[in-house]
Each structure stands twice: as C-alpha cells, then as structure tokens.
Amino acid sequence: MPQAEFRPFPSTEGVIRCGSFSVEDLADRYGTPLYLYDFDFIRTRVRTFREAFQDTGLLLAYSVKANGNLGLLSRLGTLGVGADIVSGGELFRALQAGIGPGKVVFAGVGKTEEELRAGLEAQIYSFNVETVEELHRLEEMARERGGRAPFGIRINPDILSPTPHEYTRTGHAESKFGLPVQVAVELYRWAATRPHLHARGIDVHIGSQIVEQAPYKRALMSVLEVVHLLRKEGIQLEYLDLGGGFGIPYDGESMDIRALGRELTPLLKDSELRLILEPGRSLVGEAGLLVTRVLGLKVAGAKTFVITDAGMTDLLRPSHYGAYHGIRPVVEVENREVGVVDVVGPVCETGDFLALDREMPLPGPGELLGIENVGAYGFVMSSNYNARPRPPEVMVDRDEVFLIRERETYGDLVRGEVIP
Ligand code: LLP
User: Fold this and answer.
1) CB under 6 Å to ligand 1: residues?
2) Is the pTM of this model over 0.90?
C-alpha cells in the first residue's frame, strides 16, 4: 500500500521537530552548528522508488557522494540498498557500512589502478567505465589476477540536461563524462573477444537536480538503441543503469518519482534488463536540516546581515552554486518584524553566505535557524577553512537519536601535521 508521504521537520506548537524530538532540545544537547537527519523520511523515499519502479528488477544504488556518513549508510544498507561509488574511499565507506559488494557499482571518470584493484578484490557488481584506457587496464588486471571483470560503459547521450547550474550537467557531448555511442559500441565489440572481461551492463547519468522527465526518457531511448544493436551482435547485457539526478523541492519544483516510474517502466519491458538507479539527493536531501545559532545582526548601508555560526565551510552550496536553501526559525516568535537580509557566516570571505536578499522574520541574537534540504551535498562538501572544526551529524529515527559523527576538535584539525 502506498503510504501518504510526510514532510520532514514539521513544526508543532511553533517548534521544529525531528521524529519525536524538538530541534531546540537537540541543538542544546549537541551544540550548533549541527547537521540533523531524519532517517524515517529517507525510509519513505526508498519505498517510493521501489514502488515506482517495482516491475523493473530495480537495484537502488544510493549515490554515496551525496552523504557518506557510516551511520546513515549502514541504516540504508539494512533496507537492502546498494551503492553507487566514485572512489576507493567511497568503496571503503560502503563496505565498512556493511553494504554487500554485489550491490556496488563503481562510476567515475578517472579511476586509479589501486581503485580498480580494490573493486576487483571486493568483487563489486560492476565498474561503469568512462575511458578506453580504463577498460584496457581492467582487462589487464583481470587477466593477471584470473577471473573476469564485470563492466558497463557509461554512454554520453549528448543531452543538455536542464539543471539549475552548469556545473551539474554531465550528459552533453562536451562534458568529460561518458563515451560517445560509437566509441562505446567498438569497446563492447573488443571486450567480447577478451575472456577476462564480462560486459554486464550499460550506464548513463545526465546531471543532477533535474525535475523534468523528458531528458530521462531521451537518455533511456538512446541507451536502449545501443542495447538492441549489441544484442543483434550476440552481446547480451544484464543491467541498464540510468544514473541519478532526480530533483528535490529546494524552491518549488521536484521530480515526481512515481510519474517517472510510470513513464519509463513500459520502455524497459521488453529489454530484459534490470534497472539500476543511483539517486543521491532525492533519497537524503530533504532529510537534512542544518541548525545554526544567530550570533548577531549588522546593518551596513542598505544591507542587513544576519550573522550565524554556520558558514560556507559547513554548507558550500549557496556560495558555490548560488543554490537556494529555505531558512526557518527553529522556534517561531509571534509578530516578528519581517525584513530582507543576507544570512552570512563567520568565514573571512565576502562569498561566505547561506542566503542573499532573503525575506524572513528578523531573528534575535542567540536564536536558532534551520537551513533546509541539506541532507545531500551538505556535510560532504564541508571544509576546515579558517581552521573551523566541522559540525557533528545526528540522525533521528522516530524515537531514537544517534550521534553519527562527533563534532571535530582542534586536535582533529592538526591530525597528521608535523612540526619538523
Ligand atoms: N550517479 C552519478 C554517476 C553521479 O555523478 C551523480 C552525481 C549521481 C549518481 C547522484 O546524483 P543525485 O541523485 O544526487 O543528483 N554537488 C552538487 C551535485 C553534484 C552531483 C554529482 N554527481 C550539488 O550540490 O548540487
């Protein structure tokens, strides 16, 4: 039975909640800035994908790059979710979290020999290959080790995907990702003559934060063309990986996963391939809230600044992509004056902001704000610039709360450094 989807971080009696906890209480307990995740919401997202694509033999390979925290990953693993990884480090994380290697796909435009070896040793499900050299290297390594290396080729379908920022488009011909169809077909033909290679599938990923169905349909059609061509030549694949990139409602529109399932499933029907999807953002993005405390307000000319204890080191997306994240008071105060402000962090950069020209109730010093939709590409893109320890991560699952990453200490900041 499809369940009604709930929104994470509802307000009750004027206070934002997470599971059965008050966010104000959690901020007192763990301090600020604080990354907070609602796992129960992630669970509903997993269910939505599974229901939407139930007739496709779906392998849901969570894109670890979106949020690789071990606590979160391992709980996703217990739901039977696999992993889409892009580095040896992400392979390590996925295995540490208990995700079965048979559910791991390894993407990435530049894999090193050590990373390929680690994937072979772990016996992952497949390497999504992005260069000719990579497949040659894989063949050589599999030959030396004995056994067969499973692979798919990432196709570049030459689709300019409608993403909010050019940095997150990956499907057009002039991007560094994937291989042109003709090159891919030649590679499959070559691989068919190599006993140590196992052509297991085919892959495409067209970009991130896409809210329209049409580009996925187009990508799927162009991949299916290759599948049919190969089949005629006796090369039978097992999976079709359509990547991730499904958009979430940062400031309005999002991808309707169920509608996408209805649109794509019939096209897959007679392909006899199992579908792999690699959602990152759409599983965890909305499940994250960055809780920050207001340090002060400053009026400078026509500008009003709200200065918070979180900045670009904690959440890079606003300054890097001009990304929009909703900001709400954690505890509502009635009859607040509304103003237009820049919400800025303490980092010594003018580009250090969380929101520009945002109309919002003017908070007082010491009050808490919640920055929304930070579960994906939030903590993972944080840094220690300005020698700022990174915030803790806390995961709530209904009436349970777990500290899944401690706040960094000054000792952590200098770990590995040497005074000669
Ligand atoms: N599969 C591949 C091969 C990818 O490159 C990506 C994302 C995904 C799956 C997952 O995409 P998602 O479902 O999360 O959109 N830092 C940027 C996003 C970069 C995405 C890179 N690749 C941001 O903060 O918007």
Assistant:
1) 63, 65-66, 84, 107, 168, 205, 208-209, 243-246, 278-282, 317, 321, 376-377
2) yes
